[in-house]
Write a structure and sequence with these properties.
The protein is an alpha+beta fold. It has two domains: 123 residues, DNA methylase specificity domains (Adenine-n6-DNA-methyltransferase TaqI, Chain A, domain 2), CATH 3.90.220.20; 181 residues, Adenine-n6-DNA-methyltransferase TaqI, Chain A, domain 2 (Alpha-Beta Complex), CATH 3.90.220. It contains seven helices and 20 strands. Strands 2-8-5-6 form a four-stranded antiparallel β-sheet, with helices on one face. A four-stranded antiparallel β-sheet has the order 13-19-16-17, with helices on one face. A three-stranded mixed β-sheet has the order 4-3-7, with no helix packed on it.
């Protein structure tokens, strides 16, 4: 197989995104990309899709493929192929295989050095081989994306069921249930503090984590893995610092770090999970966004009859079982793709 040795800058350009503060965004269906991926939406695109986005500030060297028109902000670059020498999807996989994260030019504020990145030596096959490699790898990504969409629909169905029964109060038998003091007869309204304890997570710096089987939860969700768990699952995680009030369900044992609270497995339930997701938590710290525990405890929580909770859990537990299966399938697909990626990109595996 004939592969051409060249520099990355011989086949692509990395162009700067454009500043787009939250206050200037207008609601629309155009994804706004930063270095961490989609960070919002806008009504006007800066780049016509498909396209490739590379993290410049923050999540240095992150790489995303977007089929739609999109708006990359100034913490990211977007890729422009040169003279048809490289397939855009192939460029995405090529960039994903390169050590871009190590090309940080600023210690204080991580930044991808564009000149160093474009100066990387690469080997590129013929355009036909590029397409073959892209087709193989994109098959995995398409399956992953299809499963992700199915998961989103399942999550939405559970959320809508919660809202129908416990927000709109259209639960089974509601027509024959009188309202007493603002709640259906037989229900109770308590504060969150009367119902659960929000426990603090524990500091676990990235440099001392040992990659393992247990997800590490921060306020933005899973931020890595560790060899040990701090909490047995299933249980609930609630964002304390950073993404205030974010709520996650972990069906397996996990490690919550000090930017989150967690609810013990004994007190966690899928009803409580969706109730927390439906609550409006606010930051009580201007300098560093934070969720004050006493404020969280003051929120109201409805306590429906056990028979209604059982009916709700029977439905949503089936949904979450499907979610867990799809999530596990996606992990296996990613692992298989990631094993193939370096072998295909190096030419070790012929196509």
């Amino acid at each position: 197989m004939s592969w051409r040795i060249c520099q990355l800058g011989d086949v692509i350009e990395l162009r700067y995104g454009k500043s787009l503060p939250d206050r200037d965004r207008k609601f629309g269906d155009i994804p706004v990309y930063g270095s961490g991926g989609i960070g919002g939406w806008h009504d006007i695109a800066l780049v016509s899709g498909p396209g490739v986005i590379v993290g410049r500030k923050g999540s240095v060297g992150s790489v995303f493929y977007e089929a739609r028109n999109f708006f990359p902000i100034d913490t990211a670059y977007y890729v422009v192929p040169k003279d048809g020498r490289i397939d855009l999807r192939y460029a995405y996989y090529l960039l994903s295989s390169l050590p871009l994260a190590s090309m940080n030019s600023d210690v204080a504020v991580p930044g991808l050095n564009r000149d160093r990145a474009l100066g990387l030596e690469i080997s590129v096959p013929s355009y036909a081989i590029q397409l073959s490699i892209s087709n193989i790898l994109s098959t995995y990504d398409d399956l992953i994306e299809n499963n992700r969409r199915r998961m989103a629909l399942l999550e939405e169905s559970a959320r809508l069921l919660y809202r129908e029964w416990f927000v709109r109060l259209r639960f089974p038998g509601y027509e024959h249930t009188p309202i007493v003091d603002g709640v259906p007869q037989g229900w109770e309204r308590k504060t969150l503090g009367d119902s659960i304890i929000l426990n603090y997570g524990k500091a676990l710096k990235a440099e001392i984590r040992v990659e393992g089987d247990f997800p590490v939860f921060g306020s933005s969700g899973i931020v890595g893995t560790h060899e040990k768990a701090l909490v047995q699952g299933p249980a609930i995680v609630l964002g304390r610092k950073g993404n205030v009030g974010s709520v996650y369900w972990s069906s397996k044992s996990f490690y919550p770090i000090d930017t989150v609270y967690f609810v013990t497995p004994e007190s966690s339930s899928l009803y409580l999970f969706y109730a927390l997701k439906n609550m409006h938590f606010i930051s009580t710290d201007v300098a560093v966004p934070g969720l004050n525990r006493d404020f969280a405890y003051s929120r109201h929580l409805l306590h429906p009859p056990l028979s209604l909770l059982r009916s709700f859990h029977e439905t949503v537990e089936r949904i979450h079982a499907q979610l867990d299966k799809l999530d596990e399938t996606n992990k296996k697909l990613r692992a298989a793709r990631d094993l193939l990626l370096p072998r295909l990109m190096s030419g070790e595996l012929a196509v």
